[in-house]
């Protein structure tokens, strides 16, 4: 007898229970959520653009949008190589080591014959684990196997033969030390790459052997456990539990038959079926009751009941850990092998247990007595017949299933070795082994995908595509279809890619990965309606499809109901682009959340796309803060590929805040630094200048844009050229680019074509002479916004009276007109709030009243001159230039003042200039 026999309850059982609980958690987590390592299908994002109206030019019949690009983020799915499972492999190897040590320590308590059987079984497992592959001494030598057998079996033999009274703790720690020493020795002596990983991967053989042994041990555990519980529940009731157990047994046997038919794959069952792996939990729970009864009733057992119960829990936990490992590593051959053995053993042993039960206990099971107490007593010949009959049934079922176990066992061991080579970077060896694994057993998706992936990496695309074609023909799988179609796109064969994806959808209807990629290729081959239909019908299948649908709606300019969008960053970016395209107001809270998400994002592509869309909205608040953020982003090393676009975003943010001079200068700088995109930038500045009635500068930018390759001319371009004094160029472009429509300018446009360089007094007289109410209203607003500095209070009020009832924010206008004093802050605020132009006085150089007001607020004469001079680079307002002349003279720059007067003479007469100088402004 062992000393301290209570120790198994306090150590062996606790360790076994701990391994069991964690094993159940890990196994069910992987079964429910799947392996994160294979299939390794991930979305890859790419950008497209859509032109959105940031602002509009509305000058009578001259109306067009000032468009900037917003980004649409499309995502396509790619099949990536299976990810490494190094951490999981080492963890599983450690778990198998602990279970093995515990099992060996328990084996040392066995009686002679069971001990010999357990020892023989352990040696067989070590042999199957292919430790000879460690190549110690010579390739494939038996030295590693000898070391392992010595390190694990010798201490067990020692305790069994010479120290039978040793405590269990001493046995466990002794086996732990000797086994650990053997493993360390193997790792140190081995000449292969990463021998620790090799042992960790090969430990699956040992774990699988333990799991299979436990499964066969509990071959009738579910039915016998149910019988024990029924017998206990019906004591003293005289209920016919025979009918109950027959009904339950029939239902269970029928379920097993359906599961067998399902995994054979020759019958399509009309109802859903579950994985045989889910049977392990009820088998283990119910089998505990059956095993406990057996250990209490049978006297001649292998060891003391507490030790056998601990061994039971170890086998139970080993099975769950094996399930986890198989799901993580996606060794499908091993998983199918385990499923088959579960069904074979349950069917064979359960069927013969029912025969054993009915033939021996039918006469007493309905008596209401404690019939569960005699289930295994005496342990007689009929029970051995049960086991023998069960084994024969297993052989029969194996033959019926075409002896698939042989192919599975061959494939699973090859797959284990392939995983080792794959994770140690030996691609050629891994590809050969994965190919052999798939050849042996076709229901092996990881092996086929890994083969193709590795062949592509080994620069053997033809062979890789042959493997993928073979997979599509024999055992189609989604990731291989994605890989093959992606390769076709890479080789510029989009129609072949469509063929594979369409055929894939016939085999996997509604698969979101195939639907998404097919829709994107439809767009590429000019089938946008088919793409839109596909995404619309399947948008709820995956968040990526919904996000791509939002982007496609904008790209195709589809007027659709708002698509349900999620909280993913890409979806938010696309949704904002759609709102900007439709000129819909955005929720401020959504904009805030998007900015917060962008500040936490790591991808430069998504950040730059997000800030572009975020800052393509007119906003006069926090402009400097936003531009500082953009500037800080542009300085990051990972943004070098997006530097130009980020700088463009800064210019757009300036434009959205009304900073015209800053935006135009930055865009001109971008045009200079990026000749390939200069036409786009110059066309954009032309629109900004035309909005500010500077048709001359706008025309020059249009001409420069055409020289840089811009060709997308519209009628409004020709109108701007005519108004800017370039009629011949307008006619040339009309003929050259076949611009439709007419460029004829109406009276109002001709009137305002020289608006900026005309004096306020002359413009007021022209305003009074207008007969068209629409033209007069438009000119009224222009006079107030850009020429109010040169109008008297009477003239301003006359304009204000005309606008009554025709404008919004009328109370703000009236507040300004009551005291049109540019030095009064309240009056100035009313003026700016009426025009809704923010609070920066010098943002737009064409708003002369605000520029002059800003200059008056500066105490430094040099600062005054610099502000006025900067504005005069854009604006030819006569009074602005006179103030500039005066400021230049105040700081002693008489030559600059004279040069400015000389330049003014190009659009004003000297009499007008003298008059302006004589007036005390």
From TrEMBL:
Transmembrane residue ranges: 12-32, 89-107, 114-131, 143-162, 169-192, 204-229, 241-261, 273-289, 310-326, 341-363, 384-407
The UniProt record lists the keyword Transmembrane helix: yes
Keyword terms: Membrane, Transmembrane, Transmembrane helix
Transmembrane keyword on record: yes
Domain of life: Bacteria
Protein known as: Tetratricopeptide repeat protein
Species of origin: Algoriphagus lacus
Organism phylogeny: Bacteria, Pseudomonadati, Bacteroidota, Cytophagia, Cytophagales
């Amino acid at each position: 007898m062992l000393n301290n026999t209570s120790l198994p309850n306090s150590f062996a059982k606790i360790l076994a229970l701990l391994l069991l609980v964690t094993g159940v958690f890990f196994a069910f987590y992987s079964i429910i959520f799947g392996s994160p390592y294979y299939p390794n299908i991930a979305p890859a994002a790419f950008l497209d653009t859509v032109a959105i109206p940031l602002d509009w030019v509305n000058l009578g019949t001259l109306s067009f949008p000032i468009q900037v690009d917003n980004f649409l983020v499309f995502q396509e799915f790619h099949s990536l190589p299976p990810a490494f499972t190094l951490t999981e492999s080492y963890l599983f190897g450690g778990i198998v080591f602990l279970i093995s040590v515990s099992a060996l320590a328990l084996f040392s308590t066995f009686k002679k014959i069971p001990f010999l059987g357990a020892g023989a079984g352990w040696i067989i497992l070590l042999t199957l684990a292919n430790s000879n592959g460690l190549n110690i001494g010579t390739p494939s030598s038996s030295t590693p196997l000898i070391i392992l057998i010595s390190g694990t079996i010798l201490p067990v033999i020692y305790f069994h033969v010479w120290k039978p009274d040793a405590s269990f703790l001493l046995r466990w720690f002794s086996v732990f030390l000797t086994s650990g020493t053997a493993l360390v020795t193997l790792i140190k002596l081995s000449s292969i790459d990463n021998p620790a990983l090799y042992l960790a991967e090969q430990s699956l053989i040992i774990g699988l052997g333990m799991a299979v042994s436990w499964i066969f041990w509990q071959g009738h555990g579910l039915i016998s456990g149910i019988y024990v519980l029924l017998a206990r529940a019906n004591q003293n009731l005289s209920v016919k539990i025979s009918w109950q157990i027959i009904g339950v047994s029939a239902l269970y046997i029928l379920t097993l038959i359906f599961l067998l038919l399902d995994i054979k794959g020759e019958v399509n069952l009309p109802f859903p079926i579950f994985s045989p792996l889910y049977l392990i939990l009820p088998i283990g729970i119910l089998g505990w009751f059956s095993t406990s009864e057996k250990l209490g009733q049978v006297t001649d057992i292998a060891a003391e009941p507490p030790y056998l119960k601990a061994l039971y829990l170890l086998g139970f936990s080993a099975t769950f850990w094996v399930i986890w490992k198989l799901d993580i590593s996606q060794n499908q051959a091993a998983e199918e092998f385990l499923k088959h053995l579960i069904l074979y053993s349950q069917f064979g042993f359960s069927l013969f247990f029912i025969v054993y039960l009915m033939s021996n206990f039918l006469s007493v099971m309905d008596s209401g007595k404690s019939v569960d107490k005699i289930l295994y007593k005496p342990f007689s010949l009929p029970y051995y017949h049960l086991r023998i009959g069960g084994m024969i049934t297993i052989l029969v079922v194996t033959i019926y299933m075409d002896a698939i176990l042989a192919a599975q066992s061959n494939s699973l061991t090859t797959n284990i070795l392939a995983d080792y080579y794959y994770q140690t970077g030996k691609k050629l060896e891994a590809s050969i082994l994965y190919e052999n694994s798939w050849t042996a057993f076709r229901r092996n998706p990881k092996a086929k995908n890994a083969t193709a992936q590795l062949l592509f990496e080994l620069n053997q695309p033809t062979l890789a595509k042959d493997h993928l074609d073979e997979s599509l023909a024999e055992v189609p799988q989604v990731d291989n279809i994605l890989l093959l179609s992606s390769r076709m796109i890479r080789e510029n064969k989009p129609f072949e890619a469509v063929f594979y994806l369409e055929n894939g959808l016939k085999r996997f209807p509604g698969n979101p990965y195939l639907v998404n990629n097919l829709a994107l290729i439809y767009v590429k081959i000019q089938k946008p309606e088919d793409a839109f239909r596909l995404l619309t019908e399947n948008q709820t299948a995956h968040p990526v499809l919904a996000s791509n649908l939002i982007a496609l709606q904008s790209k195709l300019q589809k007027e659709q109901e708002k698509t349900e969008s999620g909280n993913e960053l890409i979806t938010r970016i696309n949704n904002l682009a759609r709102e900007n395209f439709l000129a819909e107001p955005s929720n401020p809270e959504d904009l805030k959340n998007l900015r917060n998400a962008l500040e936490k994002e790591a991808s430069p592509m998504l950040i730059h796309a997000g800030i572009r869309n975020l800052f393509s909205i007119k906003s006069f608040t926090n402009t400097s803060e936003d531009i500082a953020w953009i500037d800080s982003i542009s300085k990051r090393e990972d943004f070098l590929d997006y530097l130009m676009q980020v700088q463009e975003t800064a210019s757009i943010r300036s434009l959205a805040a009304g900073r015209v001079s800053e935006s135009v200068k930055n865009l001109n700088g971008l045009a200079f630094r990026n000749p390939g995109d200069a036409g786009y930038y110059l066309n954009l500045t032309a629109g900004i200048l035309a909005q500010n009635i500077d048709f001359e500068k706008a025309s020059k930018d249009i001409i420069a844009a055409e020289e840089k390759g811009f060709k997308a001319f519209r009628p409004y371009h020709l109108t701007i050229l005519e108004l800017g004094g370039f009629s011949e160029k307008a006619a040339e472009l009309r003929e050259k680019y076949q611009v439709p429509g007419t460029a004829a300018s109406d009276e109002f446009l001709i009137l305002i074509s020289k608006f900026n360089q005309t004096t306020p007094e002359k413009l007021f007289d022209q305003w009074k002479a207008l007969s068209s109410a629409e033209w007069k209203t438009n000119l009224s607003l222009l006079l107030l916004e850009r020429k109010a500095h040169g109008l008297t209070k009477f003239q301003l009020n006359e304009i204000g009276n005309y606008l009554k009832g025709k404008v919004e924010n009328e109370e703000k206008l009236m507040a300004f007109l009551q005291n049109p004093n540019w030095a009064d802050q309240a009056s100035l605020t009313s003026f700016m709030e009426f025009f809704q132009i923010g609070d920066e006085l010098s943002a737009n150089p064409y708003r002369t009243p605000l520029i002059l007001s800003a200059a008056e607020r500066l105490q430094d004469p040099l600062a005054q001159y610099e502000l006025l001079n900067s504005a005069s680079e854009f604006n030819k307002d006569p009074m602005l230039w006179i103030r500039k002349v005066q400021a230049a003279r105040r700081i002693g720059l008489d030559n600059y003042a004279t040069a400015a007067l000389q330049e003014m003479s190009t659009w004003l007469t000297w009499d007008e200039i003298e008059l302006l100088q004589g007036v005390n402004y």
